[in-house]
Automatic annotation (TrEMBL):
EC number: 1.14.13.1
Domain FAD-binding as annotated: residue spans: 21-376
Keyword Flavoprotein: yes
Record-linked Pfam families: FAD_binding_3 (PF01494)
Key words of the record: FAD, Flavoprotein, Membrane, Monooxygenase, Oxidoreductase, Transmembrane, Transmembrane helix
Lineage: Bacteria, Pseudomonadati, Pseudomonadota, Alphaproteobacteria, Hyphomicrobiales
Organism listed in the record: Phyllobacterium ifriqiyense
Transmembrane segments: 21-40
Name of this chain's protein: Salicylate hydroxylase
Amino acid sequence: MNASLIDLKTERNRRDPNPDQIIIAGAGIAGLTLALALSAKGFPVQIFEKSATLAEAGAGVQLSPNATRILQRLCVLDQLTPSSVEPQAICLADGSSGEMLLSLDVGHVARTRWGSPYIVCHRADLQNALLEQARSQPNIAIQLQSAVTQYKPDADGIIVRVQYHDRIEEHRGALLVGADGVWSNMRTAMSDMERARYTSTIAWRSTIAADQLPKSFTSLLPQGINVVAWVGSNAHLVAYPIRSGEMFNFIAVAPDRQGGRRWDAGAVPETPSQNFIREFNLWHPGIRDIMLAGRPWTSWPLFEQRKCRYRIKDRLVLIGDAAHAMTPYAAQGAAMAIEDAWALASALGENIAAWPSALDAFDKTRSKRIKAVVRRGAMNQLAYHAKGPIAMARNMIMRKRPAEKFIEGLDWLYGYDGQI
Ligand SMILES: Cc1cc2nc3c(=O)[nH]c(=O)nc-3n(C[C@H](O)[C@H](O)[C@H](O)COP(=O)(O)OP(=O)(O)OC[C@H]3O[C@@H](n4cnc5c(N)ncnc54)[C@H](O)[C@@H]3O)c2cc1C
């Protein structure tokens, strides 16, 4: 849209209830969690969400104790509990033989050692629980079909331009938070930051009703309710029950051998390509059968931000994937979005003059944390996708090393309770 058209259609929205409101772009996991955390501190919040609905594509999400602790404080966890599943263990298995290599008892340990449960749920259930809670707060307003397009500083704060249907509105606020995801407009259009980088890897996701799972696959599952990752050369498959155990969620991560993906392609329902199926040809038959049983598979090209940055300008901050989209090998993207939201709300006090230094401290602390989590993800990727002698060494370490040692190595990640 050219500038004159913008000016012609611009109308200052005079209904903004409070020029000190905090404006959030994006009602995803980061944006909704932030709205709840800010609202609990008494800040008025306005969220603009570009989509018309907030339904999430069918897929599951693992929420570790560092995330559920915050959801509990925001009264969201109890709403999620009826539909979520609390696995007894996280298990790692060899993709070709099916042999179980390692089992970490997160069910019991998460509550006793890290002080909050480890759960898995459908993303739509998480989004709905956050949304319901946000809608019940009088100081949170949510406007759908509204894309934040521009931002400019103003003497008393900021003015944000929002495309609502065919008109442009202007809204005044004290701070703009870009929680607009991996393809963040706030990140690219309003700063000098680079776009997310395509990793040439695709996550294929599918869900299958628990009573429709092939026998060859169920025979591979360890006793009980677990998250299981089968690891192998260049690829891995994760499976866990969701929707109170009625459905199974699958994520298969493999290289994109076809190439040519657009940088902003997003998730696409597809029949898995022969290349994708072929990736698992030498795997255990139970896993090959899952590749054929999943209908449809949705392909999620994996992107990452090489440089994490939260604080863009005095009154413009990024959180969640917009600040640091990461690959899913540590299953921490949503957890980091939730941690960001909690940390940002705890950093902001009533005195607006103190915000710049509070935001600097927020940026510094969170960037350090993200660096460590990204490092863990890269380590997991190396271990999961290893082949040849490295894979043999991996299997041996997992068989021999006491589970307690692996649990200890997760304390910094799952036991985290960061305030700024
Ligand atoms: C295959 C896969 C598996 C994963 N598994 C896990 C897991 O098990 N555990 C985990 O913790 N994480 C996981 N993640 C990561 C997690 O899904 C993301 O990190 C998380 O969804 C990021 O949340 P967000 O709120 O930052 O972004 P999003 O959820 O993408 O939300 C951004 C929102 O902003 C809106 N928006 C965009 N532009 C604008 C605009 N200009 N104006 C207004 N609104 C706008 C969008 O419509 C959207 O609603 C996984 C990711 C993948 C790809």
